[in-house]
Amino acid sequence: MPELPEVETMVRGLRPVLSGRRLKRIDVLDELLLEGCERADLERAGRGTTVGGVERRGKWVVVRLAGCAGVIVIQPRMTGGFWLVRPPREDHVRVIFEVVGRGEPVWFCDTRRLGRVSWLADANSAEQRFARSHGPDALQISAAALRDRLRRTTRAIKVALMDQKVLAGIGNIYADEVLFRAGLNPQRNANSLRRRELSELHGALGEVLNEAIAAEGSSFDAGYRTVLGLEGGFLAQNAVYGREGEACRRCGSAILRTRFPGLVGRSTYYCPRCQPFRTDFR
DNA sequence: CGGTTACCCTGGATGC
DNA sequence: TGCATCCAGGGTAACC
Question: CA A264 → C1' B4, Å?
Answer without folding.
Answer: 9
